[in-house]
Amino acid sequence: MKEAMAAEVAGELEQAFAQGPAATQEAMRQWLGPEVELRHEPAEPADGFYPADVLLQALSQRLALFTRLMPDYSESAVVTSEGAQIVVDLVIRGTLSDGSRIDIPGRDRLTVREGRIVAMLSAFDAERMRPLVEAVRAL
Predict the structure, then answer these.
(1) What confidence category does residue 21 fall into, taking pLDDT thresholds of 50, 70 and 90?
(2) Cα 49 to the center of its chain, rounded Å
(3) What's the CA angle centered on 29, arms 26 and 33, to 5 degrees?
(4) pTM given for the model
(5) Are the beta carbons of 66 and 80 closer than 8 angstroms?
């Protein structure tokens, strides 16, 4: 397979986001490098380097959890690239069991090297994320 450029990866990720979370997960399976640096803004204790299969398992668990908490769970994204960087402006939406609607914007910055995603920096609005975090804790 020829080396993928960030623009090619970004295009495929954008198509996957349009198809839904399961397609996005499959696209990530295709494009993650063997080891990925995961960081959050603000920093989290779990930040560090992870094998791709560990990140894919976490994405699968997140999808199952969000679908359980919000049967109408969805994500939308605008994906752009510049050089080796991909920016994913993401919005997580859904309705919690108490009827409250969530709409959480975030931004992921992905770094592509040798045709694979090797780093992810994820930032979400902590205040708007609070109702979802509280719903997870209540399980």
Answers:
(1) confident
(2) 16
(3) 155
(4) 0.90
(5) no
